[in-house]
Amino acid sequence: MMKKAKHIPLYVIAILILLFTGLPFFIMLNTSFKDQGEFSSAPWALPQNFSLDNYTALFETNFFQYFGNSLFVSVISVVLVIIFSAMASYPLSRMKFKLNRPLLLLFMVGMMIPIHTTLIPIFLLTQNLGLYDTLWGLIGPYIAFALPISVVIYTQFMSDLPKELEESAKIDGCGHFQLFWRILFPLLVPATSTVAIYNFIHIWNEFIFALVLTNSDEAATLPIGLREFYGEFSVNIPGLMAALSMASIPLLLVYFVAQEKIIKGLAAGSVKG
Q1: What's the burial of 131, exposed, middle or buried (CB within 10 Å: 0-12/13-18/19+)?
Q2: Membrane topology per the record (predicted)?
């Protein structure tokens, strides 16, 4: 009984944190079921007339086109980041050469660069390559800025794998390609989950590059498309809340399914002193 009593403060703190973090989402969801008039008169009250009009109205906008664009860019970027960062981490963690440590430090320096300082050169480069106002023009910068932290996470995970696996595979005649894809990569599920989840969330919510590198509805992603709910003199807040509720579904699924892997992966991917 005493042991259970000791955990009561922890449960109280956990409930308070849940209320603190869950309240904004509840307000967003609650507002999405109101019309503009009811929101203006009673913004904090529960909806008197429960309505799905704000959600059905999304079909009359380009919301699902923006949703599809974001999904396409996020998935393609994350898949390529996983492939490139995992392959780059293999020589950094399993091979010994003079530039091993400097290259890893170079990736770590890349994590410190403010990405917004690169907007102008990336904009010019995208234009020169003919990729301006295309989804592929977004994928390149997203991959580039996701690589540093992904390489660090993979490198730390791969360094912790036992050397005996590599030695046994080489005795059996495995080359570097087979060793990496058949032996090491399947063991990196926690690292792969962490890299995928972390970068998917970041890319899904990214705004500034999507704003600068696109100019049409056909190439706009979800953060850009949400501006459709802003009028010249007013904002359709219930409609915007409905769109945000729909847009948050992939992120909530990611957190609920694999939140433990995010924490474990980031902890294991940190640099040891």
Answers
A1: middle
A2: Multi-pass membrane protein
Paired with 173 in beta bridges are: none
Calpha distance 12→118 (Å, rounded): 45
Residue type, 240: L
Sign of CA pseudo-dihedral 154, 159, 162, 168:
positive
CA neighbours closer than 13 Å in the CB half-sphere of residue 159: 19
Q: Tell me, what's the pLDDT at 270?
A: 46
CB 222 within 8 Å of CB 210: no
Q: Residue 230: beta bridge partners?
A: 235
**How is the chain split into domains, by residue range?**
61-268
CA-CA distance, 204 to 193, in Å (whole number)?
A: 16
Residue 114 zone, left/alpha/beta (φ > 0; ψ -120 to 50; rest) = beta
Tokens of residue 225, six digits:
């498309």
The structure's pTM equals 0.83
Tokens of 200: 């998917």
Torsion angle (degrees, nearest 10) of CA 122, 66, 60, 48: -110
Spatial separation of the C-alpha atoms in residues 95 and 89, rounded to whole Å = 10
Residues 158, 95 contacting (CB under 8 angstroms)? no
Look up the CATH superfamily of 61-268: MetI-like (1.10.3720.10)
pLDDT in tens, 95-117: 777 888 888 888 888 888 888 88
